[in-house]
């Protein structure tokens, strides 16, 4: 499935009352039936007609750009989107690792290190999905006239503006980068499910002690419930609070200038995104601390940010391909969460087997990088809770949530449990 064109126009719903129930995530958009010029469409027209300003193009009667301008705009937007995803995948992964490091300390009241990263990413997701000011010049236009209109017409105008906001917003490269890139990579479903299994198996690391005290099966079940409820409830609360925060700060939220984005930020992001990724690859080959003999940089962050963009791009394209297939069950998000969870479990096993993760420093660091980078970025809590909150019927949300957690934990029991409950975990050399 190809990336949406960069000049989709105003997308009005076929059935407005039904369309407004669609969950507002970063990849699901209402079906278009009518096109009206937008800022980005006018920009394409201006590029196709030298000497004409974007404002003049927007005010003209032309409602679609030339085929050449449309093709150029589509490919340029595709490149901008990928560049934003790469940059914010790296940034989101580093934010998650940093929050995990701050969370995991002696005497910490919460032993699931990824909890606060999931909460932070969900909060930002809630703010971005509800905000209508930050990217207003991308999707907005002149205020609709409310004079000489009855109440029903005013409601229809307001609904049309809301649908325009929802439809066009998801085609903006910066918005996709912030939600799919930063929020998706700052949160991690695979790490959450890994901690759920470790809590069940009484193997969850405790920063307050060097040894893990034994407990019976009943207490292990309570630990499992605690990790699930804490993560899901706090992440959902953070998502809703982020949305409320966007509404409360509506008048204070600045608007990013459209021309600044098109002329400076978008082209610069190509260099910045790909340059940061290439720099991470070079640092993984020649780490700054190579002469010291420890080479801890690669294990702590560098390998993770090398693999992070791959996971983010996989999640983005799978979500575009599958999420719209079943409106009541987002198959794309479910699929990537399961893929990342399976890979996380296998890498964790390899890291805790003598002779692999316990004997070779670089091999152990690469496995850690795959778990923190690829798996952490392939899976997402922020989009998952946004979908749970946005599904029109509550029973669909409960079914989707329970199936995702149950399937993920089932994979972990088979993959990690088969090693832990037979020969046990060995201590990795990079642990």
* Percent in strands: under 5%
Query: What is the overall silhouette?
Result: globular
Radius of gyration, in angstroms, nearest whole number: 23 Å
- The SSE order reads HHHHHHHHHHHHHHHH
Can you give the helix content as a percent range? 55-70%
For the secondary structure, the number of strands is 0
Number of helices: 16
Give structural notes.
Helices cover 66% and strands 0% of the residues. It has 16 helices and no strands. The chain has one domain. The two termini are 40 Å apart. It is mainly alpha-helical.
Concise synopsis of the structure shown:
With 431 residues, the chain is mostly helical. Helix content is 66%, strand content 0%.
Jot down its keywords.
disordered N terminus; 16 helices; single chain; mainly alpha; 431 residues
Write the layout of secondary structure elements.
Layout: H1 16-19, H2 39-48, H3 54-59, H4 67-103, H5 115-130, H6 136-139, H7 151-169, H8 173-186, H9 189-200, H10 217-248, H11 258-285, H12 296-322, H13 331-351, H14 361-378, H15 382-390, H16 394-420
Helix pairs in contact: 2-4, 4-5, 4-8, 4-11, 4-12, 4-14, 5-8, 5-10, 5-15, 8-12, 8-14, 9-10, 9-13, 9-16, 10-15, 11-12, 12-13, 12-14, 13-14, 13-16, 15-16
């Amino acid at each position: 499935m190809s990336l949406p064109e960069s000049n989709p126009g105003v997308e009005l719903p076929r059935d407005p009352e039904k369309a407004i129930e669609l969950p507002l995530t970063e990849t699901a958009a209402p079906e278009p039936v009518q096109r009206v010029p937008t800022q980005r469409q006018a920009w394409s027209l201006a590029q196709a007609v030298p000497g004409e300003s974007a404002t003049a193009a927007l005010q003209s009667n032309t409602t679609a750009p030339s085929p050449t301008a449309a093709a150029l705009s589509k490919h340029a937007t595709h490149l901008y989107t990928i560049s934003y995803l790469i940059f914010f995948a790296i940034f989101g992964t580093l934010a998650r690792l940093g929050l995990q490091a701050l969370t995991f300390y002696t005497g910490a009241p919460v032993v699931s290190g990824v909890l606060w990263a999931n909460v932070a990413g969900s909060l930002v997701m809630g703010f971005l999905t509800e905000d209508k000011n930050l990217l207003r010049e991308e999707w907005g236009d002149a205020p609709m006239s409310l004079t000489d209109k009855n109440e029903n017409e005013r409601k229809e105008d307001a609904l049309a503006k809301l649908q325009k906001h929802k439809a066009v917003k998801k085609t903006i490269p910066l918005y996709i980068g912030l939600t799919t890139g930063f929020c998706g990579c700052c949160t991690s479903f695979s790490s959450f499910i890994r901690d759920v299994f470790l809590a069940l198996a009484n193997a969850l690391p405790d920063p307050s002690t060097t040894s893990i005290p034994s407990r019976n099966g009943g207490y292990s079940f309570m630990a499992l419930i605690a990790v699930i409820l804490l993560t899901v409830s706090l992440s959902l609360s953070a998502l809703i609070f982020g949305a409320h925060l966007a509404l409360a700060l509506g008048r204070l939220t600045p608007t990013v200038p459209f021309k600044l984005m098109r002329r400076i930020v978008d082209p610069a992001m190509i260099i910045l995104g790909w340059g940061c990724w290439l720099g991470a690859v070079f640092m993984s080959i020649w780490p700054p601390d190579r002469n010291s003999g420890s080479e801890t940089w690669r294990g702590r962050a560098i390998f993770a940010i090398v693999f992070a963009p791959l996971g983010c791009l996989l999640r983005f394209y799978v979500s575009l391909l599958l999420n719209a297939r079943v409106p009541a069950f987002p198959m794309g998000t479910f699929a990537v969460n399961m893929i990342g969870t399976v890979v996380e479990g296998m890498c964790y096993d390899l890291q805790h087997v003598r002779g692999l993760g316990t004997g070779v420093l670089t091999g152990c660091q690469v496995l850690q990088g795959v778990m923190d980078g690829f798996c952490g970025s392939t899976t997402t809590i922020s989009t998952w809770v946004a979908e749970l909150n946005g599904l029109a019927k509550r029973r669909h949300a409960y079914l989707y949530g329970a199936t995702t957690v149950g399937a993920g934990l089932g994979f972990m029991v088979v993959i990690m449990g088969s090693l832990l409950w037979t020969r046990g975990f060995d201590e990795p050399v990079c642990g």
